[in-house]
Amino acid sequence: MKKWLVGVASFAMILALTPNAQAASKKKAAGSDPYGINKILKQLTQKKKVSPNKYVYLDVVLKPRNESQLSDQIYAVNTPGNSEFKQFYTPDKFRAEFGQPASVVGQYKPFFNKYHLKSESFSNGLIIKVSGKVKNVNKAFSTDIQSAKYHSNPVQFSKKKPVMPAKLADNVLTVLGITTVKQGLGSLAKKQSDSSKVKSEYAPSKFAKQYQLQPLYDKGYQGQGQTLGIITFANVRKSDAQHFWNAEKIATKPNRISVKKISSPSSLTTNDALGQTETDLDIEQSGAIAPQANIRVYQANFSDVGLVNAYSTAFEENQASSLSMSWGLSEYLTHYLKAQRLLTPVYGQVLNTVMAQGALQGVSTFVSSGDTGAYNRGIGGKIGPISLPNYSTYGTFPADNPWVTATGGTTLPFSKKLGKGIDISVDKERAWGGDYLFKAYAQNRKLFLTNPTAYQAMLAGGGGGISHLYDTPEYQQDVPGVNTFNARQYLSNLLQPRMNPVLISGTDYGRNFPDVSADADPMTGYQIYSAGKWQVMGGTSAVAPQFNGATAVINSGKGTRMGFWNPQIYKLAQDKDKTPFTVLDSDSNNSNLYYVGQPGKVYNQATGLGTVNFEKLYDAYQ
């Protein structure tokens, strides 16, 4: 993978910073983050004023109430045996306990109206969407929005820290969108091959058979009465999905796809061809697994505002009982941008509160863990304006969030000829990692060095590791294998294959991910139809929507939401009689290019708890 990013699509990550407090006689800082843009002003180049008529989108994030009780309530409604089990919240109940009341939120609209800014608040009582012309934003917040370059990356910023009337500012946690940096990123296109026709070996039915979902179909459970949600940051092509299901002979519910377009910074769109292919993959796979479910797509541009608002909209509507997203970025960048004064340190807190709302409402949320194995891209140094990359075991954001179920990747057994007498094979399901290609690479390096797709396949694998952004959640504590690890360093610091690396062991602490895994290797992947072409794809981008669909199937049988999976599945995994998991615990031929299995332990960072037998999960899950 070239630049270590979840998802097929290339995209730009935009993150906001919120300036620190500034004393004023009648106004106060809108947020109290202890730093400001002024610390890097000298490093900005090509500074100029932004057109006063440019339209911008902001989020005014209010301070949550009773925040210390959020975790307890999530466990209460998602843990069997608790008196509040399955008493999922509505958006109104969430607001009543954790959001600001209408009497507080209502004070902001007249203020924004005064400055000709549109405003709309989410029913959670925490986020007010604000939009309007730059000249009016500047007047309302006493800012001076400008544009510039920061190490060649476009930046929008204000030297003046946003302030608001003291009565309003007192309840503001942060403002997203006034200052943003567009951090350019690339990704791996996880395509194995083009094809002119449907091939049964790459059909979505393979997932159902491999992971014992077929017995639930046989009982008549196909997602009827359910809505599954897709978070995406690219265009939606309904006709591609319908063509796919028809060609695969999957009897689906008609007119099942609806799209909710979410306003976010329009200049930072990711509606490119690869992004649209990612969206096709998500919709087609989730819809194939749950053929009678409705599909609700939440489409925004990828930005600090877009990410928060996409999830907030999904939870506000509360239509989708399960939700998936196949996008993300290196956790390293959240630390780097924070250190460089380009990311508010409360952004993780904001997203965490949003995701907590979903868990309280019983929404099962799945996020792809990444396709670069344990490795993610960082920044190792600079030559002039050029940032030099480094690669290390950084987490993947937001798969590292404690309130989502992170989906990792495996490789199914297969044999294949690469040409010129080179054979590759995998004899049993294992963690997805390109190290099984290293022997072939040693036999014929030219074959790989002249074939970028083959070389990239060696550097690909299921995301997994230990977060240094979020602490170890309660459901993972004391689970055998969590916060301990076995590893083999299959890649050098220069991303060169290392043959037969030694086994090392250690300990670390944080949110361990992924939680579950399934086939994600492009070599054993799935066919999709996109932009008039059949393509064989892979990546954990396929796994998240597949689990999304499987959840809709289970919900249709049980007649109630599964809710947030993790509190239950970590307990089931430790029950030898009830566990639905096949643990992939070998410490050899079973890596995500770094982490390997921990023999005899329930968990490892290469594949999480392992693969799922959905029939057993249905029977054991309460």
UniProtKB/TrEMBL annotation:
Report the cofactors: Ca(2+)
* Gene3D superfamilies linked: Peptidase S8/S53 domain
In the UniProt record, does the keyword Oxidoreductase occur? no
* InterPro entries in the cross-refs: Peptidase_S8/S53_dom_sf, S53_propep, Sedolisin_dom, Tripeptidyl-peptidase_I
Q: Which domain of life is it from?
A: Bacteria
Peptidase S53 domain: residues covered: 207-622
- SMART domains named among the record's database cross-references: Pro-kuma_activ (SM00944)
What keywords were assigned to this record?
Calcium, Hydrolase, Metal-binding, Protease, Serine protease, Signal, Zymogen
| Endpoints of the signal sequence | 1-23
Q: What is the name of the protein in this document?
A: Pro-kumamolisin, activation domain protein
In which organism is this protein found? Lentilactobacillus rapi DSM 19907 = JCM 15042
